[in-house]
Amino acid sequence: MKIIAHRGDHAYPENSLAAIKHAIKDKRYDGVEFDIRVSKDGKFYLLHDRTLGRTTNTRGLLSRIHSKDLKKVRLRNNERLPRFEDALKILHEYEGIVYTELKSHRVEKEFLSLVRKYNIKNIIVNTFSRTTLKRLRVYDKRIKLHLGVRLPVINMWRANSIGCYSIAIPSFMITKRTMKLAKKYKIKVLPYMVFSESMLERCKRLKVDGIFADTHS
């Protein structure tokens, strides 16, 4: 079972370069995951929420702020709000799995251009938007895609129709039927919201392919 560091190593601020650097050095992790959003002028940044308030010293919607103003934004560790390109430079020679959750839409061409520029070996693009995945598939027939879902059974068929490599499902919603369908469609299952030891043990019993981990435990 693969262990993916969800938003990086949680000993550091989420989606920070420090969190990514330490996750890829930590042998307990098989890969790292982080979130990507786009600024007003089309620059890619690492951020989970639509707004800056929860994780930085600034308020406001990222999509409404120009990159020249985002230079002033700091995370809790005083790190600048990271650009996607900064993360790609760190991951250039990384041999593990890289899950990138693309939260902005209609930026697929620009996103893929950056990925190709740095030749990231094992990148998998994650989104909850099937429209975004379909666009990515049109622009790149070979890139691995990952669908985030909340209703596993119907979305397993949808993920298969797009040609997804893997699918994310809340850990408490995974059943034997889910895993049977995944095996049929040859789609890997990686639960998220694995918040307790009992949830982890349940995932192991169901033989999931990996988990998005928020802690080392």
Topology:
Elements: E1 2-6, H1 17-25, E2 31-38, E3 44-46, H2 67-70, H3 84-91, E4 97-102, H4 108-118, E5 123-127, H5 130-139, E6 144-148, H6 152-162, E7 166-170, H7 176-185, E8 188-192, H8 197-205, E9 210-213
How much of the sequence lies in strands comes to: 15-25%
Largest sheet: 9 strands, mixed
Share in helix: 25-40%
Number of helices: 8
What is the CATH first-level class name?
Alpha Beta
The poorly predicted ranges are: none
Q: For the residues shown, what is the average pLDDT?
A: 95
CATH topology: TIM Barrel
Whole-angstrom Rg: 17 Å
Question: How would you sum up this structure, described in words?
Answer:
The chain has 217 residues and is of the alpha/beta class. The protein has one domain: Phosphatidylinositol (PI) phosphodiesterase (TIM Barrel), CATH 3.20.20.190. 33% of the residues lie in helices and 21% in strands. It is built from 8 helices and 9 strands. Strands 1, 2, 3, 4, 5, 6, 7, 8 and 9 form a 9-stranded mixed sheet that branches. α1 packs parallel to α3.
Summarize the structure.
By secondary structure, the chain is an alpha/beta fold. It is 33% helix and 21% strand.
Question: What are the defining features of this structure?
Answer:
single chain, 217 residues, alpha/beta, 9 strands, 21% strand
